[in-house]
Amino acid sequence: MQKLVTKLFLMTMILIVTACSFESEDETLKDVKKVTETEFSSTGVEPNTELEQFSIYIPNNLEIVEKGKSNLILEEGDQSYVVFNNVFEDRASELNYKTASVAENPNLLESFTDDGRFGYVRIIKTDEEEYELQVGIGGIKITTYSPLGSLESDAEMMMKIANSITNTSNKE
């Protein structure tokens, strides 16, 4: 009997510790909002990659798998990040945000303004374990699909990338 009580106690403790170690969806969404707003307001990093119409910072853990004039697909393992840069929209443009805001029931949709720039973050739960994450600044948007536990770090990295983009074309 004592062994049974001990086992039940240990199992209960394991469940409590495990449950406490995972952030809730609400806590994660608050953290994502905070980290994207902080990264949006930062001075940003210098681009390290020159493309046809823009320069961009690409973290070492990401690899370019496809590029077009205004699109770029980055990958890390089996996760893709789609970068879209509309050179005809400036940093204050709300076009991508307005498009993002028509989605039904987003889990998070927040916008930020700073020094003549407009940024946003949107998260939509797509299934039990995956979320569509989109961040943008003006005519720039980056989209990926992430599990709850990766949303915060992905959002921070994506806003850092978006913040680094500098248009180099003459908008031909």
Automatic annotation (TrEMBL):
<feature type="signal peptide">
    <location>
        <begin position="1"/>
        <end position="19"/>
    </location>
</feature>
<keyword id="KW-0732">Signal</keyword>
<protein>
    <recommendedName>
        <fullName>DUF4367 domain-containing protein</fullName>
    </recommendedName>
</protein>
